[in-house]
Protein 1
Amino acid sequence: MFADIFPQVDLNQPQIMGIVNVTPDSFSDGGRYTTVDLAIKQALALEKEGATFIDLGGESTRPGAEGVAEQEELDRVLPVLEGLRKESAVMISIDTSSPKLMQEAAKLGANLLNDVRSFTREGALEAAQTTGLPVCIMHMRGEPSSMQQQTTYADVVTEVKDWLAKRMQVCIAAGIAEDKILLDPGFGFAKLLPHNLTLLANLNKLTSLNRPLLVGMSRKRMLGEITGKPALERDAAGIAAHLLAAQQGAKILRVHSVAGLKDALQVWQATAQALNLTKTQDK
Ligand code: YH5
């Protein structure tokens, strides 16, 4: 159903996307080298654990975060992309809203443009279209700095679904092929815990948009609110949440910690295979 979007990756099976944040550098040249090198090492380690995608981001979009200067974002992300591309054939996703970074990243061999602002910045839609790369559009309201002041929904599942359908049509009208679009409900973006839980419980309803679903809940506040645990102790909760998403048809699972989720998916897939064998024996 979702053949041929990415070379060598079958989106009919759930895939794991490992998150690599290219964190702020120290001002010394040595600091920048270290940051780039560490980010590449982190990406290769996540690939070894089972990630088929790496999401590279140079801007914090957590609730309340302010934007980063565009040139600084380019300076953070591009050296990591260039270095990782030399060392690995892993699918590289670029988490950015910057049209300039989208275009430069495409030249350096990026495989996916992942924009939490869904290509709404001036020139972003055109930039994305020009690259010819697949794009992920994600539900959000406003900006990360203000989104948690816009959390009123009558029916969150229907509103997110209709918003994604509309935004997909805007992308198609701008010349982006429908079969290059991925969709994401945007867990934690302009949403409170009940909205996030309702979306997770009803994620299967988004599959009728007939596009691959990407989801990211890793270490987010919703998992903290459920478990009472701080960010770095939320990975087990994240495994459960992403497995629930995969069972409802999510195809790319965006996480900080890959190995545990890989195991969980293998247990599910082995069990599903056994169920098929049982059904065959039954008839
Ligand atoms: C996403 O859902 N999220 S950046 C706050 C946290 C932890 C994690 C500790 N980019 C998504 O991961 N791209 C981000 O509190 C994304 N979908 C897509 N497609 C936010 C993030 C995070 C924020």
Protein 2
Amino acid sequence: MDREVRVRFAPSPTGALHLGGVRTALFNYLFARRHNGKFILRIEDTDQTRFVPGAEDYIIRSLDWIGLDIDESDLKGGDYGPYKQSNRKHLYAQYAEQLVKSGNAYYAFDTPDELEAMRKKLEAEKASIQCYGPATRMTMKNSLTFGEEQTQLMLQAGKPYVIRFKMPENEKFTIHDIIRGDINADTSVLDDKVLYKSDGMPTYHLANIVDDHLMKISHVIRGEEWLPSLPLHVLLYKAFGWQDTMPEFAHLPLILKPDGKGKLSKRDGDRLGFPVFPLHWEDPKSGEVCKGYEEYGYFPEAFLNMMALLGWNPGNTTQEIFSKEELCKIFSLEHVNKSGSKFDPEKNKWFNKQYMERLDNSVLAKYFIEDAAKDGVTVDAQKAETICGLVKDRCHFTHDLWKESTYFFIAPTSYDEVNKKKFWKEDTPAIMREVVDILEQQPTFAAKTLEENITKWIKDKELGMGKVLNPVRLLLCGACKGPHIFDILENLGKDESISRIEKGIEVI
Ligand code: GLU
């Protein structure tokens, strides 16, 4: 890369950071790290009507939780600040006026009613292009139709105005996108977008271009929804005379619903029971509370890993587990897919499981001890480690560990009806009594010897493993679940195992 890589994540603080935003931030981050560049956070809050209190803080906390360290932002500092657009307000007017002076933009004084009348007229005429643009601008109230003198009078009189981009007529050109290749642009279908409003606020388009230029952004990596704005953005760079330093563009594919039909939305998460935000979010307007990936029990490393593979692939390898550090070394925009990526909530759980299984049992034991304590059960570290080792391959989250193994510490008070129907037969109580006798006779209660002795006994008696061991499991655990039965026996110990079986025979 000849140019210093400087990329920005530029969210608007209009709500919680959704998965699409997380993925955009992540790809920007990985690209910056891969090329020893800078990852910048810029808050795009020019649209005050959509401002949501707490959203900016939420975005910053989310990036922090995922582990995306920022090089430049208002919190972090940097040479190109301020990094929040509302604090850069003073900058934009001069750029909008520069475009007016160079003939690339103009003042427009049309009232909302006049704009509405235009829209209705075009609709009634069934005009082929229904917008404020080359075909209509000369019929409207703007500096092009008023002339210099009247325009100045209107401005001096404080008439509300906007500055519109003067879209060139019928220009065709191609734009290169790193992910999508060459894209054809045709100005005949584009309108004269508003760049600046007389309330002193730029629109997204102007602020975005001016800031990317002033902040020396080298690559714009953002969601596909911005692709339709790309021709305007390229024309703005041209109008400013900034073509030589124009950033390169990469538009990321959509994240699709699990069935692949349409863009993933918050409603899909609610409907299918998976989180769509990284952290807990309470909407200040509606009061709606949403659980985040963090509260669901995801490790940030697992979350990052699965987000990275949502639209990017590592090339010729089947490897799926990547640390952040590895991704920083191998990420490339050339391996980002053009088409949308299906979101798979089950696969997310699988990722979390992979990370959990890689943790030492002593680490898992800490979560286990904490969760047990919440249920009033004290578990010593050694025991917790052993149990975690036994049940972790049946768990996706650390909070499953305790849930999956409470029966090691709390005797069952009821028995699963379905299992009971299936495994508790007329002759079962008699067999269970014999099991008690065999267990009484065991010199040690180690899983290995128990397994040898008991399976031998079952074979000798020609009873069938399932006929004996399923009811034993039911009486020990309350349901036919859990790890190897002999590990359960060993960990419960002789007295407790026997007592549960005896009690079970009575009460089941
Ligand atoms: N503020 C825009 C957004 O929230 C940023 C788009 C861009 O990256 O240019 O999506």
